[in-house]
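// run 5 | inverse folding | seed 20
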């Protein structure tokens, strides 16, 4: 390993990871990604009551449920000062340079394996049509970045909830670590709050194991291997890491770095900590990784008026809807209709019941693209309308059946189609898939310094 532990070809840096010192209550420390439960303030109120006065990642992050609370400036200032406090008081201890092998248990899977690394933001490009080594899988909404950049610009630490995917069917990168996990130093092992499972972390800092990991990644990034694997020509550049979760968080880190690097001297560019971002890498072939649909709930509308507007919007594509008696009838209808690859079927619920929207001759490839294209136009002309992106059918039912709301149920996408789809077609429609259910999302845990 060179002195900077930076491997340019694959865009990987071996980070110095900061973890809470041994006497910190890790269950109180670790909290779920800030973009979860955005329409359920009661979830975050419960988290606050659990954490209390204890050191916690909750105090270093900005849950999006509070973005419109009106005290953003105050909250960001408090976050930044708490970061400095935790560093000064040695709440956080340095480990590394190292990788962290992660084994996560949830209520849905006994094990999902990951690897904490740092990636080079110079190798990442979220713009449409990108051919970068690290690539977005969904469209990036540029308008969503400024408030996130504001949070990051004076932050001394980053905490990752970004999860990157690799397409490693032979399981050469992460899975070998599981076979010898007992030989690594265990740096955490605890239950996650709110019935979200259990997590273990193992420090990997020996050159032999790190060399094996990097060698396996280099093989995945070999251009000839890549083109043969996906049956593509030289017009397609290698995609090694695809963003699975945290697309806008990683885009924020990139935008922040673009601002910083303009003031850097040439000799500072490679070593500046803001050039890199801490992430968890997961193999798309991991048996503990599932893709779930991200549903929609639309607030402050007349459901029948919205449905009629959608029929009108897609009149040339033969759109219609009909009401049904139960959730069970929706599921049965969706299964039957979605077996027909030429049409799109989307379930819905309101305070008056259930139903199915069918677009017989869709112009878009995925149901989520059909729905989102309509919603983007519909809400543009209705300022009071809000759309939220929901994980799990139960939450859709709870919110969608409230008066003046409508919930939409979308089908799931096969995880095995992800890489080839992004390589051939570019980014997917916004919020196409979720890696697991809401409570399986990455919890903030590890930290890394991003300021000098």
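// decoded
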């Amino acid at each position: 390993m060179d002195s900077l532990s930076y491997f340019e070809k694959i865009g990987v840096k071996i980070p110095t990871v900061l973890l809470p010192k041994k006497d910190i209550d890790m269950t109180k420390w670790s909290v779920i990604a800030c973009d979860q439960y955005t329409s359920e303030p009661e979830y975050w109120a419960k988290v606050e009551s659990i954490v209390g006065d204890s050191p916690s990642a909750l105090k270093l992050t900005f849950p999006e449920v509070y973005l419109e609370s009106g005290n953003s400036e105050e909250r960001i200032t408090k976050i930044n000062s708490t970061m400095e406090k935790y560093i000064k008081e040695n709440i956080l201890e340095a480990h590394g340079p190292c990788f962290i092998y992660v084994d996560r248990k949830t209520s849905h899977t006994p094990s999902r394996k990951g690897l904490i690394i740092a990636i080079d933001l110079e190798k990442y490009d979220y713009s449409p049509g990108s051919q970068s080594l690290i690539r977005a899988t969904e469209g990036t909404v540029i308008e969503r970045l400024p408030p996130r950049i504001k949070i990051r610009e004076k932050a001394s630490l980053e905490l990752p909830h970004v999860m990157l995917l690799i397409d490693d069917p032979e399981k050469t990168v992460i899975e070998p670590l599981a076979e010898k996990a007992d030989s690594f130093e265990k740096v955490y092992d605890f239950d996650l709050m709110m019935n979200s499972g259990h997590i273990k972390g193992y420090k990997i800092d020996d050159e032999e194991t790190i060399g094996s990991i990097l060698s396996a990644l280099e093989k995945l990034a070999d251009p000839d291997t890549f083109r043969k694997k996906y049956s593509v020509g030289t017009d397609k550049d290698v995609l090694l890491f695809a963003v699975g979760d945290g697309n806008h968080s990683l885009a924020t880190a990139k935008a922040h770095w673009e601002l910083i690097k303009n003031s850097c001297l040439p000799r500072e560019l490679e070593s500046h900590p803001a050039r890199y971002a801490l992430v968890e890498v997961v193999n798309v072939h991991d048996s503990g990784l599932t893709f779930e649909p991200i549903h929609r709930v639309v607030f402050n509308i007349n459901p029948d008026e919205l449905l009629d507007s959608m029929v009108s919007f897609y009149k040339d594509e033969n759109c219609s809807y009909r009401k049904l008696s139960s959730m069970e009838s929706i599921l049965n209808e969706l299964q039957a209709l979605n077996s027909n690859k030429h049409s799109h079927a989307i379930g819905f619920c309101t305070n008056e019941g259930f139903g199915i929207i069918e677009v017989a001759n869709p112009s878009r490839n995925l149901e989520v693209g059909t729905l989102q294209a309509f919603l983007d136009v519909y809400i543009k002309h209705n300022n009071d309308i809000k759309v939220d992106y929901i994980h799990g059918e139960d939450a859709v039912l709870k919110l969608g059946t409230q008066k003046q709301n409508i919930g939409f149920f979308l089908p799931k996408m096969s995880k095995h189609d992800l890489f080839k789809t992004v390589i051939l077609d570019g980014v997917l429609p916004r919020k196409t898939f979720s890696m697991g259910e809401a409570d399986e999302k990455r919890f903030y845990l590890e930290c890394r310094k991003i300021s000098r």
